[in-house]
Design a protein that fits this description.
This protein has 770 residues and is mainly beta. It contains four helices and 42 strands. It has a 26-stranded antiparallel β-barrel. Strands 1, 2, 3, 4, 5, 6, 7, 8, 9, 10, 11, 12 and 13 form a 13-stranded antiparallel beta sheet that branches. The longest helix is centred in the N-terminal third of the chain and has 16 residues. It is elongated and about 115 Å long. The two termini are 38 Å apart.
């Protein structure tokens, strides 16, 4: 071990031993050995044992006169001036300052006649940009802006460092280096001991231009993990957080359908706030694909657009197990998003997602979404009101869906206003909403409504929290082409129809708080009474209330239908309780509840929703947290008759940010008629995790398995254990390098998006195409 506690480098041990063995070596041989090692010393990237020069703090009551522009300020322990030669010699912690340039050295000899400055011993020079240069000897002009440095080390203000056998600095700040090395990586470990950087570039000549924040290389080679170096062409790279035109980090991969893939992005800096990236994707089995990314930012907001384009064979027959390919066709995808803050209250935003066919995104592993939405929105938000004018278009990628059945919403107008009632301290919320849905080959619906809700929240002397609610709404619908909707319960009646809705509710919570097991527990029973008269539901179309499912989030809702097209017209009592325990580092929360319908009239809620009988199913949720290490959330729904599990959902996260495992399990066993809604019974498990097995190395993986069988869903093709997809990978990532490999496998064929293996390689260097 060295004196400073850091281990002695193995190379140094070998040098010492060799000197011992060659004690009798001739002087000439010793000099030759010293010369042979000089290039290594000349590229020393380690820190130098001297602090950079710092401007002296102002002295109290000192003169505030500003020095002349060409005046050099300096200080030292000792100073000699030869009047005959006009040479000034300063020794002992010498510091010189001029126009933002600063120098520190053990000795400085200044020839006032020639303007030459020679500094030796623990030299550190800082330029106005903040870059620091270290050296053994430096020859400068008296402007301190240009000169020659031996054994030079430059620590850049933007990050990274340059080392060279010799370097020169011009008056404009340009640094020219011979036999040089560059790295943005750290050169010390966590203990502060020297270490070899993860990667570095050595070159015959290097030029650093501070005004462009860019480094230029000639005769360069790349050294990675100390492995044999790789020759590089003449190139340049930016330093720091800026950007400039040039090649980005390449990526590579392999897939069964497309073959070997290589992509090399090129970035064009169009302006300080605009950039364009063009990425050619080259495949061994299919034609190349072009990818274009454009982004722009201004004082109001930003937007970005990504587009893909290629030509390949695709399958139009998606339902056949072994489909045939069509002739060559143009295929592509465009994805854009933007948001602009027009004023403190007004915001405009939108998104664009369109593709040429249903399998393009999966085949080229761009996305696995089964529906693409294009949206546009104009919003105004202040302290008490909200206004939105929006629209959207949906493109389906599902095999069995018809595009003509997908709605186009244009426009949807929503306005909400909150204000106090001024009498008893309650609060009103007014809502005005209108929506127009158009289909190219289906039913069209227009809807408008106005609603008013009043809420009053009070606390009794015994600690109960009581909330009174009154709600009223009036609807107007117009429906056309209802016969195009195959599900009768979704159609409604043709033409104009209206509806009036009313409801009142009282919600009571009574929290009890006390100590338990050295912590705090809280038990809160809750009961809610809702009264609502019968309203028209079936006569109106159902566009946004189709997926009905009772869970802990909507148990105490005034309307347990999603959306606005259906309203739960029943009088009921809902009851439940919540228990929470907080211990040092541990928290646990659980709630459970059920409702009972007071009236006897038939309900429109279908079997399987948990709400079709007078007693609802029992729903609950539990959550356990242990510091930031464990998080387990369990949601469930129990059949009220036999306590059969109708919904069982578990999400668990265990571990730290570096090493963790995520498990998700879902089982829906609701026995819902397939004609009622789209969501079918299903069982699946999701697993993901990451293990950091070294400081910078980690392995990761994830997978999805379909556990559904024929008894749960007769239409499912799963045999009870059918993998959907998985991925496994390994990654190295430190402060200046990211290197990884991933293996993915999909198990389902959809047209020309075939199942099989794919491999992805990633390599990214800090300041080199990143």
């Amino acid at each position: 071990m060295a004196a400073n506690g850091c281990p002695v480098p193995k190379g140094l041990v070998r040098i010492v031993l060799r000197i011992d063995l060659l004690t009798g070596c001739a002087v000439s041989l010793a000099l030759a050995c010293g010369l042979a090692t000089s290039p290594v010393q000349a590229q020393d990237l380690q820190n130098r044992p001297v602090a950079p020069p710092v401007q002296d703090p102002p002295v109290a009551n000192a003169s505030t006169a500003t020095p002349a522009e060409d005046q050099v300020q300096f200080s030292s322990t000792a100073l000699e001036y030869n009047t005959n030669t006009d040479i000034v010699t300063a020794t002992g912690e010498v510091r010189m300052f001029r126009q933002g340039s600063r120098l520190r050295a053990d000795k400085v000899v200044w020839n006032r006649k020639t303007g030459k400055v020679v500094a030796t011993g623990n030299i550190a020079v800082t330029n106005p940009e903040g870059d620091i240069a270290y050296g053994d000897e430096i020859n400068l002009t008296d402007s301190l802006k240009d000169g020659v440095v031996d054994n030079m080390l430059v620590v850049l203000e933007q990050g990274g460092r340059l080392a060279a056998e010799q370097g020169t600095r011009d008056a404009d700040g340009t640094v020219n280096l011979k036999t040089a090395a560059y790295t943005p990586c750290g050169v010390t470990n966590s203990a502060g001991c020297p270490k070899e950087p993860t990667w570095k570039i050595t070159a015959v000549r290097v030029t650093y231009r501070p005004e462009r924040k860019r480094i230029f290389y000639k005769g360069a080679r790349l050294h990675l993990f100390g492995l044999p170096s790789l020759p590089l062409p003449e190139f340049s790279n930016p330093v720091g957080g800026g950007s400039d035109s040039g090649l980005l980090s390449p990526n590579g991969g392999y897939s069964r359908v497309n073959g070997v893939e290589v992509s090399v992005p090129y970035y064009w800096k169009l302006a300080p706030n605009q950039g364009l990236v063009i990425t050619p994707h080259i495949y061994s089995s299919v034609l190349p694909m072009a990818q274009v990314d454009y982004s722009a930012l201004n004082s109001k907001g930003a937007f970005k657009v990504r587009a893909y384009a290629t030509e390949s064979r695709r399958s139009d027959d998606l339902a056949t197990a072994d489909p045939t390919d069509t002739s060559m066709a143009f295929r592509g995808y465009i994805d854009g998003v933007g948001r602009y803050q027009l004023s403190p209250n007004w915001t405009a935003s939108g998104s664009l997602r369109l593709t040429t066919d249903r399998t393009f995104l999966r085949r080229y592993d761009i996305s696995r979404d089964d529906r693409l939405r294009t949206t546009a929105s104009l919003e105004r938000i202040d302290d008490s009101s909200y206004f939105s004018l929006s629209g959207w278009y949906a493109q389906t990628l599902r095999v069995a869906d018809r595009q003509g059945d997908q709605p186009i919403a244009l426009p949807e107008i929503d306005y909400r206003k909150r204000f106090d009632d001024g009498l008893v301290g309650g609060r009103f919320q007014l809502q005005l909403n209108t929506l127009a849905l158009t289909r190219t080959d289906g039913q069209d619906t227009q809807r408008a409504f106005a609603s008013l809700q009043w809420d009053l929240r009070r606390f009794t002397n015994w600690g109960q929290e009581v909330t009174f609610t009154a709600f009223a709404r009036g609807d107007l619908y117009n429906t056309n082409d209802t016969l195009a909707t195959t599900n009768i319960s979704y159609r409604g009646l043709e033409g104009f129809h209206q509806r009036a809705i009313g409801a009142v509710a009282v919600d009571v919570k009574w929290p009890f708080i006390g100590t338990f097991l050295g912590g705090t527990q809280r038990f809160t029973p809750r009961v809610q009474f809702v009264a609502a008269p019968k309203v028209a539901n079936i006569t109106l179309p159902n566009e946004d209330s189709r997926a009905v499912d009772l869970d802990d989030t909507n148990l105490f809702s005034l309307n347990r239908f999603a959306g606005y097209d259906r309203f739960e017209d029943s009088s009921r009592v809902t009851y439940g309780g919540e228990w929470a325990l907080d211990l040092p580092g541990i928290s646990f929360t659980t709630n459970v509840g059920q409702s009972y319908r007071l009236d006897l009239r038939p309900t429109i809620l279908p079997d399987g929703t948990g709400l079709s009988d007078r007693f609802s199913d029992i729903v609950g949720r539990s959550e356990l947290r242990f510091r930031d290490f464990v998080s387990i959330v369990h949601r469930y729904r129990l059949d009220k008759d036999g306590f059969a599990i109708r919904r069982n959902e578990l999400d668990a996260t265990i571990g730290s940010r570096a090493t963790y495992v995520l498990v998700g399990y879902l089982k829906l066993n609701r026995n819902i008629d397939a004609s009622i809604e789209d969501l079918r019974d299903r069982e699946e498990v999701r697993v993901a995790g990451r293990v950091q097995f070294a400081r910078f190395w980690s392995a990761f993986g994830s997978g999805v398995v379909d556990l559904t069988n024929a008894s749960e869903d007769p239409l499912s093709r799963s045999d009870g254990f059918t993998p959907i997809r998985h991925r496994i990978g390994i990654q190295y990532e430190d402060d200046c390098l990211r290197l990884g490999g991933t293996w993915r496998r999909t198990y389902n064929d959809t047209g020309d998006a075939r199942k099989g293996n794919s491999f992805l390689l990633t390599l990214a260097f800090t300041n080199l195409g990143r």
